[in-house]
Amino acid sequence: MATGSGAAAAAADAEEKESGSRMITLTSNEGKAFVVTEASARQSATIRSMVDDGGCVDKGFPLPNVDSKTLARVIQYCDEHGNKEAHTVDERAALAKFDKDFIAELDADKAFLYDVTMAANYLHIQGLFALTTQCIADTIKGKTPEEIRTAFGIEYDLTAQDEEEIKEEDTHA
Amino acid sequence: MARRKGKDLISQLPDDILLHILSMVRYKEAVRTAAVSRRWKHLHTKLPAVSFIMSVLGAQGSSLSTQSRQRVDSMARTLRRRCAGPDRDTVKRLSGLPQGRAHGVPVRRRVHRARRRLLAGAVPQLPKEPTQRRRRAVVPASAGCHRLRAPKLRLFDWRCCYAKEVRVDAVGRHLSDVVIELFAGRLPRCYNEAKRFLQMEDCDKLMNHILQGIMPGRWKYVQRNFIERDELRLRCEITEDDM
């Protein structure tokens, strides 16, 4: 992520020359601008299609549905996946390790995990969306309804009639 | 993203995301989440990869027993709730689901296997248990499988939205054990709107063709009646020749 500091900007410039790609500005709903490489931004299918359509690359992309904290984290993912090559076994292993650490950190803060999931969905970042939803799915796996309620802090609000219907359906499944 | 209030944040995720999550766990587990809360109760019913298998077991001189009727009724209720439930906007919501693994091939393969067996004249009465286990194995993990055995169940209705295939599978002596499957494949994202639904004509053709093909002469008629203007819902009546 290159958010204006000299070193980061220089690094981004070098990156730009090297890959021949442009820099793209993404703006969070709080108005904070994030400058990323095109390769990084192209991780998002939403932005990719806008760039390919030849639209507002210079003006940047305002993202009214994403806050700064979430966007920073999303860009962290995109940088890792967009800017780095993953051809060798080692490189792929490094990327897999990045994903693992990335999601482990998110998993500890569920609210943030949902925000990132929403952003990944909104920006159509397939890899990130798969990563976060898989993490949530893994939490559901093998749990009883009570355990799921506990894991996600869901309040129990089913009526006796609901229970009855669910039980009936269960016998078919 | 606005910071959402309240503790239960996951339930505030939109349906399509929760459905995507549910599609990643085994179907049985997805169904189990119905008992989590009201928000979750109907979620799994909107999963696109759902397969109903109704089995008709008859021609053994047995009549509809009370127990079977109860199960038929219960099954019908479940089907109705699932397919024509209060959520009329299911179609729209599902259209947002990302593409997942391809389903359907194992089912087709199984139908072919059954057909081969019938053509070979073997028509073996398959042992119940192994059959079920094998079916479990070939039905994709995230597809639901509803099975019902009831003597001479002759009338059923279903709704074929999302269905890529309607399959009729027959095994057993007297060709009486009929499995009718509504196999709904996973929906690709932003797919051609028209392709998403099985056409009525296709459905008719498939149903007639497969039933007649597998069991020539067994069925006096297989007829589809519209029971609603809603073209997604149809009903089939099947009558056996020797009834």
Automatic annotation (TrEMBL), chain A:
Record SMART domains: Skp1
Q: Where is the composition biased (Low complexity)?
A: 1-12
On whether Calcium is a keyword of this UniProt record, the answer is: no
Q: Which InterPro entries match?
A: SKP1, SKP1-like, SKP1-like_dim_sf, SKP1/BTB/POZ_sf, Skp1_comp_dimer, Skp1_comp_POZ
What pathway is this protein said to act in by its record?
A: Protein modification; protein ubiquitination
Ranges for region Disordered: 1-22
An individual GO BP term? ubiquitin-dependent protein catabolic process
Q: What keywords appear on the UniProt entry?
A: Ubl conjugation pathway
Domain SKP1 component POZ intervals: 23-81
Please verify whether the record's keywords include Secreted.
no
SKP1 component dimerisation domain segment(s): 126-171
Family per UniProt? Belongs to the SKP1 family.
Subunit structure, interactors included: Part of a SCF (SKP1-cullin-F-box) protein ligase complex.
Q: What is known about what this protein does? A: Involved in ubiquitination and subsequent proteasomal degradation of target proteins. Together with CUL1, RBX1 and a F-box protein, it forms a SCF E3 ubiquitin ligase complex. The functional specificity of this complex depends on the type of F-box protein. In the SCF complex, it serves as an adapter that links the F-box protein to CUL1.
**What protein am I looking at?**
SKP1-like protein
From TrEMBL, chain B:
The source's domain of life comes to Eukaryota
Q: What PROSITE patterns would the database entry show?
A: FBOX (PS50181)
List each copy of the F-box domain by range: 7-56
The record's listing under InterPro entries reads: F-box-like_dom_sf, F-box_AtFBL13-like, F-box_dom
Q: Which CDD domains match?
A: F-box_AtFBL13-like
Instruction: Identify this protein by name.
Output: F-box domain-containing protein
